[in-house]
Design goal:
Rossmann fold, single chain
C-alpha cells in the first residue's frame, strides 16, 4: 500500500526469486491492470508463470498489479473526475514511486483502456502495450464490419470469419449484454446501494458476468457454467474483495466518470497509441476486431493473435495462453531494441 495523489493505492509487487546463476536473465517491469468486476485476484495464477524463467527466454518479469482506485483495497476518489485517464496518471506515478522510469503494461477491460491512455499520455514511459481488449469505436469500423460480412477479404478477415461476423449477431449480443453498462454509466449509486445491502445480490450480479463474458453459451447451463473455467473459491475470493471493502459503488462509478461530458470532451480515446502494441484476441470476448480495423488506433501493432480459446477474463481463465502471448510480444521488442542499440 502506498499513497499516490492523496489516495491509498493497494498493489501486488512480485519480484522473481531463485534465478539461476548460470543465466544472464534480464528482469523487466510489467504493470498489469484488471477491470470490472474483477480484481487483483484475476492475476494470481499468472504471476508465477511470469516471474519464473522460461526455456529459451533471456528475461523474466517483475510484476506490479494495483487495485484500481475505488476497487478493493484501493481508496476511491472523494470528488468527481476520477476516470480512466486520471487513473493512468496515478499508475504512472506509482511506477515512478517504485523506481521504474520505463516499463511494459498489460490490461483487459478497464485495464486495457487505462493502459492505452497511459501509452497515449506517456509514450516515453511505456516500452510496450499488451492488451487482451484492443478496440476502436470509430464509426467507420462499423461500416467496414458490415462490408466485411459479405467481403471479408477486404478487411483481412477470411481466416477467422466466425469470430468477427455476422455483424447482426454481434450487435444483438452487445444489446443483450449492455444493460449493466447503461445503469452503471448513468445511475451508479443506485445500483451500488442495492448491491451493498445484500451479499447474495452482489454475488449474483458479479457471477453473471463471469458466466456470460467467459462464454455466452454458458448461460444455457443450469449453473451458468461458472465452474467450467474457474474454481468456486477463487470466484468467492473476488466477490469478497468487493464485499469486505464495501467498494462495489465506488467501482461502478468509473463507468459514469468515463462517460461524463467533461471526460468525453478530452477525446483521449481518439488519439493513436504509438508505442509497440500487441493485441491478444480471445475468441469468446464480447467484441473483437480484425487487425486491419485496429491500425488507426494502434499504428504500431507488432503482434496480433487470435487465441485458441478463452473469453473476457483472460488472465483468470487462460493464464498460460496469456503468458505465452506476453512473452512472445516482449521478446519481439527486446530483439528490436537490441538490434537498434
Amino acid at each position: 500500500m502506498t499513497t499516490i495523489q492523496g489516495l491509498d493505492i493497494h498493489f501486488y509487487h512480485v519480484k522473481p526469486t531463485n534465478l539461476p546463476n548460470n543465466k544472464n536473465l534480464k528482469v523487466l517491469p510489467l504493470l498489469m491492470l484488471h477491470g470490472w468486476p474483477g480484481s487483483v485476484v484475476e492475476f494470481q495464477k499468472i504471476i508465477p508463470m511470469l516471474t519464473k524463467p522460461w526455456p529459451n527466454q533471456n528475461f523474466v518479469f517483475e510484476v506490479i498489479i494495483p487495485s484500481l482506485p475505488g476497487y478493493g483495497f484501493s481508496e476511491g476518489a472523494v470528488r468527481p473526475g476520477m476516470a480512466a485517464t486520471q487513473i493512468a496518471v496515478i499508475f504512472k506515478n506509482l511506477m515512478q514511486r517504485l523506481g521504474f522510469e520505463k516499463f511494459y503494461v498489460q490490461g483487459g477491460d478497464w485495464g486495457a483502456i487505462i493502459a492505452s491512455d497511459m501509452a497515449v499520455l506517456f509514450p516515453e514511459k511505456i516500452i510496450g502495450l499488451h492488451s487482451n481488449m484492443c478496440f476502436s469505436l470509430k464509426l467507420s469500423n462499423f461500416f467496414w464490419l458490415f462490408v466485411g460480412t459479405y467481403f471479408p477479404s477486404l478487411i483481412g478477415a477470411n481466416e477467422h470469419y466466425s469470430k468477427f461476423f455476422p455483424v447482426s449477431e454481434i450487435l444483438s449480443t452487445l444489446i443483450e449484454e449492455s444493460g449493466y453498462f447503461h445503469i452503471q454509466a448513468t445511475k451508479p449509486d443506485t445500483i451500488g446501494a442495492a448491491l451493498t445491502a445484500s451479499p447474495d445480490a452482489l454475488a449474483a450480479y458479479i457471477l453473471e458476468k463471469f458466466s456470460v463474458w467467459t462464454n455466452k453459451t454458458y448461460k444455457k447451463q443450469d449453473d451458468g457454467g461458472i465452474t467450467e473455467k474457474f474454481m468456486l473459491d477463487e470466484l468467492l475470493d473476488n466477490i469478497m474483495i468487493y464485499w469486505i471493502t464495501n467498494s462495489i459503488t465506488t467501482s461502478v462509478r468509473l463507468y459514469a466518470e468515463n462517460f461524463s461530458s467533461s471526460h468525453r470532451s478530452l477525446k483521449i480515446d481518439q488519439l493513436p497509441v504509438k508505442v509497440f502494441t500487441a493485441c491478444a484476441a480471445f475468441p469468446n470476448e464480447i467484441l473483437i476486431l480484425p487487425e486491419s480495423l485496429l491500425k488507426q488506433k494502434y499504428p504500431n501493432i507488432i503482434q496480433y493473435n487470435v487465441i485458441s480459446r478463452g473469453g473476457h477474463f483472460a488472465a483468470f481463465e487462460e493464464p498460460r495462453l496469456l503468458a505465452n502471448d506476453i512473452f512472445s510480444f516482449v521478446k519481439k521488442i527486446e530483439n528490436l531494441t537490441s538490434k537498434s542499440s
